[in-house]
Amino acid sequence: MFCKNCGTENEDGAKFCRGCGTIMEEVGGNAESGAASPVAAAQPTTAQPAAAQPTAAQPAVAQPAAAQPTVVQPAASKKPMNLKVLLPIIIGACAAVIALLVIILVIVTAKPTIKLDDYLTIEANGYDGYGTATAIIDWAGIEEKYGDKLDFTSQGEKTFSWLDPMSVLQLSISVTLDDTKGLSNGDVITYTWHVDEELYKYVKCNTKYSDDSYTVDGLEEVGTFDAFADLEVNFNGISPFATATYKYYGSQLTIYDFTFDKMSDLKNGDTITVSIADRGADYYIENYGMIPTSFEKEYVVSGLDEYVDSYEKLSDDFIAGLKSETEDTIYAYTAGSYNATSSMTDLTYAGYIFTSRKEGGYSSNYNMLYIIYSGTVSSSNGSFSTSKVYYPVRFTDILSSESGFSCSGNGSIVGSSNFDGSWSSTKGYINPLICYMDLVEAVRDNFTAECGDGFEAYAEYDLITTLADISDEYKAILYADAQDKIESYIATSYNGGSEASDLELLGEYLLLAKTQGTNFASNNKYIIVYSATVSNSQGRFDTTTVYFPVEYDGIVKLPGDEYMITNTVGMVNNSVNFPNSFYSTRGYLDGEEMYSKLITANRDNYTYEVSENLKQFGE
Asked: What is the chain's alpha carbon radius of gyration, rounded to the nearest angstrom?
């Protein structure tokens, strides 16, 4: 049936037009069949002459309705389709087209993601225990799949105008193994990817990868041999200057195949490494049919006699023996070298000095031990002042061995000193500070040193810079010594009725060197001045006041409030005649002259201090 509204043919019995949605009604009184009406069908068709038929050149002429039979046809649709029906169809079609375009755009513009793990191969080659591993990236495979999909970013085009994206990719990606040599079957090695983050600034791509591990297998099994089984290594000489020697009794190698990392200046406890050339497993299999189990071996130096490098390593028995030998040496020296008027008493142990040669130090001796005793030396005829002398007895090249300790030769006394105010001399040192300087400080460049049992005190001292630095107790000792020297001089030198009376302490001078050093005798001069009234019972000269200066050089303060004089000059060697007389005396008759000679004349090298009672002559 046909719709009367739009002419669309519908199925028989349809209630609505499928073309325009209009309610269907019967056409020509029979909505069910759609046939022509009975009236039209009853009218006969009148034939027309042939000449009366329209032709292509002549338009047809309408005939009167009454004269022609009428057949009712469905009317042709002249109205547009309903927009309510078409709009959803149009929208759906547009959405489908847009989705298709988006899919195409995504496909065209998406960055390729390169799965790096798919193109990595770990290869292990060689022999079990000596294998090597290599990480290989299949760049050809990456290029085949992704090469034509890679493009530069705008920045990449500017930066790498002479390269292609694949080349930049290859420069930016690598992989490393945590172990590549000396591998055995079953070893697990890990691999790590390294992708430069700058890559993504230049190349349109993504990467996907993960670090993982690889288990070594497939390495060839091969026989081994101990390259050092028939090597004999020996150590000769004295530690720490021993040497290594060796012999080879095997057949696989020769003596020339072995290399020592150190063969001289060896000491007990040192470890040396002996090695053979690691030419690779293939070399040894080809030449020996086996591979060495190792290419190096360590040997520990032991069993050598050694030079002792510390005092504490010496045994008590050995030290006791050296002390006894030291006493014998000192007694023998003083008995054989001191004259009948000189004697040594109160020999007492005073400590030790131990020196050991530094690495790279120069000396014919490796170590030296000084056992030090002190003794009181005096002169019965007063040719020198009673003094304490320190006798260092030296023992050299002390060795330790399995049988005990030993040293080179008998000990000997070192050092030499003059007694104060005398030409007499002795072996050893009157000033222990000078002993310390000579035996310790003077050899610092080549030796380390340690002192003990009391002698270490002389490593420290205080310079005297003012009169107040000298304690009253020590001044009293020097006052008494100076008075004794003056009285001794008067007793032995005054004659012909000359005598001195009223000897009394007048004051003191201190001269301090402008440059201080370890030459203690030059650091300061301490001068004690006494005055006395000198007269002659025969009237040979007028009664006169005489000033007697007594000089002590290089006074220092030691630890424990002990003081030391480096050199006692004694009475100042100045001689003067009494007025109108041929009689003379040591000392000064004029206090101002004394000040000028002792103070002013030394101002180029010394500063000075004058005690109160002497300032009357100058300050």
From this structure: 62
**Assigned token pair, 349:** 């142990």
pLDDT tens readout for residues 101-134: 545 544 445 799 999 999 999 999 988 888 899 9
pLDDT digits (tens, 9 = 90+) for 221-250: 888 899 999 999 999 999 988 999 999 999
Paired tokens of 283: 């070399």
Report CA 218 to chain centroid distance, whole Å. Answer: 44
CB 112 within 8 Å of CB 203? no
List 501's β-bridge partners, or say none: 533
Beta-carbon neighbour count of residue 112 at 10 Å?
16
CA 261-265-271 angle, to 5 degrees, is 50
CB-based contact 305:400 (threshold 8 Å) = yes
pTM, full prediction: 0.56
Q: What is the pLDDT of residue 31?
A: 39
* Cα–Cα nearest to 488, from 554, 426, 535, 421: 421
| C-alpha–C-alpha distance, residues 167 and 14, integer Å | 72
333: helix, coil or strand? helix
Contact by Cβ (8 Å): 10, 24: yes
Nearest residue to 555 (alpha-carbon basis) of 467, 615, 485, 448: 467
Residue at 352: amino acid letter: Y
DSSP 294-316: -SEEEEE--S-EEE---GGGS-H
